[in-house]
Amino acid sequence: xxxxxxxxxxxxTPSDRPKDQSGKRFKRRYITATLLLLSFAVGLGSGFxxxxxxxxxxxxxxxxxxxxGPPDAPITIIxxxxxxxxxxxKFHLETFNQLLDTYxxxxxxxxxxxxxxxxxxAALASLCAGEQGKYWEYHDLLFTGDLAMGRSAYLQYxxxxxxxxxxxxxxxxxxxxxxQVEADYTYARSMGINGTPSFLINGIPVxxxxxxxxxxxxxxxxxxx
Length: 225
What we know:
Radius of gyration: 20 Å
Order of helices and strands: HEEHEHHHHHEEH
Largest sheet: 5 strands, mixed
Distance between the termini: 18 Å
CATH class: Alpha Beta
Low-confidence stretches: 1-8, 14-23, 30-63
Mean pLDDT: 82
CATH architecture: 3-Layer(aba) Sandwich
CATH superfamily: Glutaredoxin
Number of domains: 1
Strand order of the largest sheet: 1-3-2-4-5
Structural class: alpha+beta
Number of strands: 5
Helix content: 40-55%
């Protein structure tokens, strides 16, 4: 996440702040608690990085995951995202296409559903569109379209792409891709991910809708190894 002139955007997840206190005894306790929290954060980050590397080494070999790019590309990016997340939309409007255009043959991009904001049905709709051979076109409409989320929007997007809307609606209602969305969600949680969008770039974690420069810095470092 190299030029950090822009303030990083946080993922969509709640946060808390410690209350202000005074006194020497409190300061000592506060310093001790802060050191403990820092140690915990370092440990969590290390775990995220370790499991991310494990994912890069083998876990991504799933025929069911929507992906773009050569399967043997030197860079694998896994995105954990929610179609109803504002920061996820920002990433896809401002960074996604530029990233793939910058490295057209060097990135394998995998999308994993992590519906923490409310995009479970949208995730199902996207996979149902994939069943008709239009996953990525539908994926792009969900992020770039002007319609509010909901069944009528999902059917209208399908119609725009020339899909069978009755088949799409039946697919959503059948829940036959529920297991895949739930598996993505469970996997993300097991990795310690709790906000969207989150990314693994060859196992290196990037959190939030970071600018293109952040992705380029990590990708270039990986390519130059």
